[in-house]
Amino acid sequence: MADVEMMSSDSESIDGDSYDFRSLLSSLEIDFLIRNNGDQVKIDSLEGKKLGFYFSDKEDEICQIFTQKLVDVYKELSSKGDFEIIFASWDYSDDTFEEFFSEMPWLAIPFLLFYLEETLDELDDFFFQERDVPRLVILDEHGKVVTDDGVSLIQKYGVDGYPFSAERFKELKEEEEKARREQTIRSILASPSSSRDFVISSDGNKVPVSKLEGKTVGLYFSLSSCKSCVDFTPKLVEVYKKLEEKGESFEIVLISLDDEEKSFKESFGGMPWLALPFKDKSCENLARYFELSTTPTVVIIGPDGKTLQSNVAEDIEEHGIQAYPFTPQKFAELAEMEKAKEMVQTLESILVSGDLDFVIGKDGVRIPVSDLVGKNILLYFSAHHCLECHHFLPKLIESYHEIKAKDEPLEVVFISSDNDQASFDKSFSEMPWLALPFGDARKSSLSRRFKVIGIPMLVAIGSSGRTVTKEAKDLITMYRAKAYPFTEERLKEVEAEYEEMAKEWPEKVKYRWDKKRELTLMHMMHYRCDECNEYGQVWAYRCKEYDIKLHPKCALEAEAKGTESESMDEETPNEGWVCGGDMSIGFCSSSPLSRGRQISVLFGI
Fold it and tell me: CB of 258 within 8 A of CB of 216?
């Protein structure tokens, strides 16, 4: 979550500017906004109110999740009568707009498809340079922009951020800093506003927070619908009971993120530790306070009441009771153990677990792991429901075939995060390589070993069985088959090749649509070409001022045809100017992305 200082620097270009919101909406050529029941609301009636311009898109998963959070905040503030939100849709059709807007209790710019893009472009010029959703720009009652990072602030502070002024954000930040300086187990778990000074046991008994003073306490942030939490809880129970048997001064308090009391009771009923009451406001406050980003999370509070570790869930998964007492000294010991383990790592030590000593081929036949020893192995963590996995898979398949065509000793092993056998079968049917069977117990240990926190992920294992890199996905994305075998030495060679290639290109070219604008050759990790709308990596011609990015192929072809294009009629199509990819360093992708950025999973759930 971005803090207030980060927010201020990121939005420096607009914070403090004042706008007449009516002029911002003037391109609509109407004097009203609408509610989802069809009612029209005069724009003039918003005079003197605080306004939030909410740019969002139903196709974006994070927009859907954030919208629910924003609805809750809006409803709590509606009684004040001085705050309104205006929805500016980035949906592609009236149907998706109507469906999304039906979930919103605030106002919206009518979905006028004929010139929606023109309208959004004008609003876009006021509020931010690069489009990204969800986006919430907050104006005060005088039309002054308070922040264009309202999403982070709503996520961080919720309704407590009202009236969304710089002074209020500063006050909240100071309160947080003071709370951290003076933090105790009581300040964390007791609730002065409700006079609650207890936590509860699974049988409903109240346990005073004072009973936890002087103990090491784990705050377990969990969600019963989260599969990772469901899988992790038995491991945590095992560690808890072992520490209890040893008489250690350790306790766990569940901080449930469930929305339904039935789910809370069912999950908490099987836990041997304590919890905050269901839907206690402290649950949400603590999620903000500890900047929760994923579940499961186990925050460790030391005997002195200070935060010892921000999340030891992975450490408990990997090391169990050995991670206790979760001190920096203990983790330094564990890190040394891991280094020693990596030095003697073999393919069998990674992929063999008891009787599970095989992978499967396309026909389901079992292939012994021993048959893979001595080869370079790519462990591909993926799932059918993952959008980014669908974008990446064609690149990996293309690279795989190119490498195999050279008789290189390479194999890929698919490690599925699919939710059911049918999804696994669909995923695996698209792949020309091997896999762990669906539901294989080795998947969890591999995810822990390589710290898989997001998919797709590609881990390269060398012929010796030792890990070469966990960043093979980025290397395939940038360099395709040229990156093989992913060693530092090979990457230095590839980078030198591209540096040499770029020496043949001019440092600057003119932008063919506006000869006054110069494009400069520079490194870019990943971008979309504004000429052919395809994706590219490594090199691009870019104008930073107007954020124009072109593949070298597109830029150089346009430069070469400059004289010809100037004499052409402006309405003549530019036939034959489609980027073939070679001079965009060969990494164009035909996979379309929705406006904004690719979906990332909020809170890792």
Answer: no
